[in-house]
Amino acid sequence: MEAVIFNGPFKIDVERRPKPTLLEPTDAIVKVTVAGICGSELHMYRGHQKTATGHIMGHEFVGYVEELGSSVTNFKVGQKVVCTFSPVCLSCFFCKNGYTNRCPAGTAPFGTQGLAGGQADYVRVPYAAGTLQPAPETVPEELLIMMSDIFPTGYYGAIRAIEYFVPTPSSELNGDSEQHTALSLKMQTLDKAIFVCLGCGPVGLCAILTARSKGVRTIYVVDSVDDRLEQAAKLGGIPLKLGRDDIPSIIKEATGGRGADAVIEVVGNTTAMRSAFDLLRPAGVLSSLGFHQGDLPFTALECYSKNLNINLGRAPVRTVYDEALEVVVANKDKLSEMITHRLPLSQAAHGYDIFEKQQARKVILIPGQ
Amino acid sequence: MEAVIFNGPFKIDVERRPKPTLLEPTDAIVKVTVAGICGSELHMYRGHQKTATGHIMGHEFVGYVEELGSSVTNFKVGQKVVCTFSPVCLSCFFCKNGYTNRCPAGTAPFGTQGLAGGQADYVRVPYAAGTLQPAPETVPEELLIMMSDIFPTGYYGAIRAIEYFVPTPSSELNGDSEQHTALSLKMQTLDKAIFVCLGCGPVGLCAILTARSKGVRTIYVVDSVDDRLEQAAKLGGIPLKLGRDDIPSIIKEATGGRGADAVIEVVGNTTAMRSAFDLLRPAGVLSSLGFHQGDLPFTALECYSKNLNINLGRAPVRTVYDEALEVVVANKDKLSEMITHRLPLSQAAHGYDIFEKQQARKVILIPGQ
After folding, report:
1. What is the full DSSP assignment across B2-25?
2. What is this model's ipTM?
3. Is there a domain that residue A330 lies in?
4. pLDDT tens digits, B158-176
5. CA B221/CA B236 separation, integer angstroms
6. Are residues A298 and A348 in the same domain?
7. Which cofactor does it need (chains A, B) (predicted)?
8. How far apart are CA B69 and CA B343, in angstroms?
């Protein structure tokens, strides 16, 4: 079969590889119809995240079940499926309690040295009963591909911030009556909260859409790329451009000098994390989705003095899958411009190149073309 | 009047000072009947927290209203009151939204260079309408003095951890039917959660009691002082002694190798914060009450990889006052051994000395004796 291979930083090739086979009774083989290139793969592509070479890339994919291990009983051969970005065993402590992001079976996501990815004609899916999700035939593949990672991830980042506020009355929400409970401490109501989203790449856009659909009225959105800011504005964000706008002053002015009530950080570097901290008001919430490899750019005294609330790390895609999919389906039209490039798998190198150069919003690869 | 003066590290004297007078229409003058020495004053006493000298100490006090400014209408002269450790204006953004810990009027707590404290015959209370709380005559002063700071603080630290779990069914709770809502993400139930409290000083004991009364079944409690561990055990904690017990191994064994589901950190130094991080399982919650002045002893990558949830900083005493008082009243008997030393105000220096040497659990000073 054809597969997209990581041969070192900025070196992506399509090579022939053996079609995968079932190794465990819990496995499935999926015939891939669409595979996405994810922003988090750029850490490896750019050489920031060191790794050996030679593995198949890709942790976002949709396809059909080709073959099932004997113990996988909740799917049928031929069924359309979405795969979550890392395996989910469903039987460990973490899976049973909703922390599917910490399932030990998922330590190596798809598209790494530990597990061959889905940018290929076929892919082996471990723990298929939990790792795969049924894909409604009525939802276009361009939307479904976001459900492997970026939409549930953005959804989770937004929800973790939203939970610190008293919900907006559901009568004021647009067709989405689901309410998330606030902390028991009496807090600000969501409809008056000023949010900031740092980073308007694909995950950031998903977070912005979620925030708006859950009752956040005001969300400033920050990026350096005009196209991303335009998209974010269409989703209801107020665009602020790095290098053009005096962002700290604008946020201070919008909040009576206090700072933002919540910051969603989707960039993953030290500068962004420090900006997030600085833009946040005392006792605000910082929901960090970015993949951070450096130090934390604030001291314990700064955190104490600010009464910081912060959560970091990978999203539990499987846990939030159903509620995230509802938001996707309810906002089909708004998400239709997210995928700008559909390329044959054979043009994967070009796809990585334009995505890395921020010339594409989101690139999907089509095997068999 | 007599007042306890900070004259430098380890130098506490009782000196004569002018009786305070009303300066603003929002002030009250309180005649102090009991003043506590708080663990957080030891930062100054030991010289770790640098400050000028000459001010009156004390941010825990109970007394009677002696005089009221013209705009304070919710108290009467002669009424018994508890004072919260820092002023609360009730009219700013932070107060209105429940973040009384971040009220700008409270930037200088009582007993600092910015605001004369309550270890004195009389004290001026700014923003008395919000800073004072009515004190039920039926509750002993030994319990009320804990309501200025340590009980609401310990309560808040416990609640911030408890909120990450699905509540224990109220039928299984002992006389306390109040339930706190969990985060919307499906999480572990509280009754199965393994908690750790690092630090069993007065605030730690209040956190442990709160945790137990709210449905936490298992809480390991860590300290180096035998007397504190004995008290913590009486409140339902499982004592682990620093230097004697292999704490990481015991917690790992109790949690199937994962680590604790929640850690409440009440020590306030870098070693304790690192221990808290290491003892915590992935996707657990670290509720930090300690006053931290150093760096954060973990990297961004460690936080990302652990899916850390952490909150830090001062407690919103006013916001949680009523619910914390309910727990105090319901647990009068268990708290009766908390105060070990009642000294005349004139013996304040001795009180600081034995408290600093951990020879006293909690010291209260009685003016006029």
Report:
1. EEEEE-STT-EEEEE-PPP---ST
2. 0.93
3. no
4. 999 998 888 765 544 443 3
5. 9
6. no
7. Zn(2+)
8. 31
